[in-house]
Write a structure and sequence with these properties.
Elements lengths: L1 H48 L7 H16 L6 H9 L9 H14 L7 H18 L4 H20 L2 H10 L2 E2 L7 H17 L27 H35 L5 H17 L32 H14 L7 H18 L4 H17 L2 H12 L4 H14 L10 E2 L12 E2 H27 L1
Parallel strand pairs: 1-2
Antiparallel strand pairs: 2-3
Helix pairs in contact: 1-4, 1-5, 1-6, 1-8, 2-4, 2-10, 3-6, 4-5, 5-6, 6-7, 6-8, 7-8, 7-14, 9-11, 9-12, 9-13, 9-15, 10-11, 11-12, 12-13, 13-14, 13-15, 14-15
Length: 461
């Protein structure tokens, strides 16, 4: 009994020690994220004032390529390196990851690349956390917790969603399993990171959902909305999940395709930049460049505009998907999440018209559900909906996120994710990483196509 009590007291003391360490670490991460957001805003608006910078995008990509080739090392793995180190500690997280990803993300946005900011904040958080772990000579199990807290601090700080950041950090590691033991350090980190950004007077975009009219038609007594709307949301969420699948596959396959086509890898970002310039010239507008939050001109399609009727065009979500998968797949840097918000919000806007449903509600559902499907984090995304849009539609957020999660298949923008418990549509996948499982599928597809081609030739002969 005494031994058990002694062990309990020791665990509590250790947890308090880690928490006391996590608070200053998260404050440093929050300050770094605040600097990043400030620089990001400056670079985006500078390009707005100097649109000719887009024509230098291929050279910007070339510069990013050589930065990573010369000093990047393992940093080029990005978020996947963090997930790998949390699962199985190896070479560690290099200190240079934080400054390199900060610099290269700013370069990407300054010249118009279609990318996000979450990846940068998370990598900065992980790199800074790992650096403190080395300074304090922590054991591997404690470094692991510190890395999770670093992810939570970076994510919570960059979006102003501390609870989401904490849940995301413990949910993103493994499909079907959540690291509940790391939640307390993660929530402390998320709150500290967010408060630090606010202390630096860096503000986040505010979104609003219009009131949903209540009627008695197909009404469910336990829910504040009509039953037919639930059906429409499920239909839309299936589509959100399929688009998540398209995005995740697109990023990985574009990268794989270009690596197969070009032995001189420095040509890849040049070609990627040229394609984006050509697409922008053909479309005649810059709406799908960069972050997609601020409008370059009146009437531009942005994430905030998607919450209003007529604020997005029918295929805005597809164009943003093409732009972002090309940008990230050809070596430019930044996150995937904000583009996923854009894709989801504009798709939700379009589906609201087709399904005769509330525009702002469906934009919000798409905003979080496409993200949920692409990262396999439906719980975190449900709470993101609550933190960003309020708790009134919490049930609908959960329906959308978990439906999209189920229909996105075993794909993810993070190939280092592991599968602890397969989704209901598939079995036999536990203990695999998504990268391993995806590679097996594509190898199977290639073999089938090759066999089909050989059979076709034999028939002709």
């Amino acid at each position: 009994m005494k031994k058990s009590q002694s062990e309990s007291n020791s665990s509590i003391k250790h947890l308090l020690y880690l928490t006391l360490l996590i608070i200053p670490v998260s404050a440093v991460i929050g300050s770094a994220v605040a600097l990043f957001l400030w620089l990001l805003n400056l670079s985006i608006h500078f390009r707005f004032d100097h649109p000719w910078l887009l024509y230098l995008l291929p050279l910007a990509g070339l510069l990013i390529h050589f930065i990573y080739k010369s000093v990047g090392g393992s940093s080029e793995k990005g978020n996947n390196l963090l997930i790998e180190e949390i699962h199985q500690p190896g070479g560690g997280i290099p200190k240079r990851m934080a400054p390199i990803i900060l610099l290269t993300t700013i370069i990407t946005h300054l010249f118009g690349g279609s990318a996000g900011r979450e990846g940068t904040a998370v990598q900065m958080g992980g790199s800074i956390a790992a650096m403190f772990g080395k300074w304090f000579k922590l054991e591997k199990k404690d470094v692991r917790i510190l890395l999770i807290a670093g992810i939570a601090a970076g994510f919570g700080a960059v979006f102003g969603t501390p609870l989401t950041g904490a849940i995301f950090a413990i949910e993103v590691l493994t499909i079907g399993s959540i690291e509940y033991g790391a939640f307390f350090p993660a929530i402390i980190a998320g709150i500290t990171g967010d408060l630090t950004v606010s202390a630096w007077r860096v503000h986040h975009t505010v979104y609003h959902i219009d009131a949903v009219a209540k009627t008695s038609f197909f009404s469910l007594t336990d829910l504040p909305v009509e039953g037919i709307l639930i059906i429409k949301i499920i239909i839309a969420s299936v589509i959100f999940g399929l688009v998540s699948y398209l995005f995740a596959i697109g990023v990985h396959q574009i990268k794989s395709l270009f690596l197969k086509l070009f032995k001189r890898t420095w040509l890849i970002p040049i070609l990627g930049g040229l394609i984006i310039i050509a697409l922008t010239y053909v479309l005649g507008k810059p709406d799908y460049l960069s972050l997609g939050v601020d409008a370059q001109y009146p009437g531009a399609v942005t994430i905030p505009s998607a919450f209003q009727a007529g604020g997005a065009q029918t295929w805005s979500w597809l164009w943003k998907t093409i732009y972002t998968t090309l940008t990230l797949g050809t070596g430019f840097k930044g996150g995937e999440v904000t583009p996923l918000f854009y894709i989801g919000a504009t798709l939700g806007n379009t589906l609201s018209v087709w399904l005769n449903s509330p525009v702002s509600l469906f934009a919000a559902l798409g905003f979080i559900a496409v993200f949920a499907g692409a990262t396999n984090t439906p719980l975190a995304c449900t709470f993101m909906g609550i933190e960003l849009f309020g708790s009134e539609h919490a049930v609908l957020f959960g329906i959308a996120c978990f439906t999209a999660y189920l229909f996105s298949g075993h794909t993810s923008i993070y190939s280092a994710q592991r599968i602890a418990l397969p989704k209901i549509f598939e079995t036999g996948l536990p203990d695999q990483t998504l990268k391993t499982q995806t590679n097996k599928r594509w190898e199977y597809l290639y073999k089938k196509l090759y066999k089909y081609r050989v059979d076709l030739r034999k028939r002709k002969l």
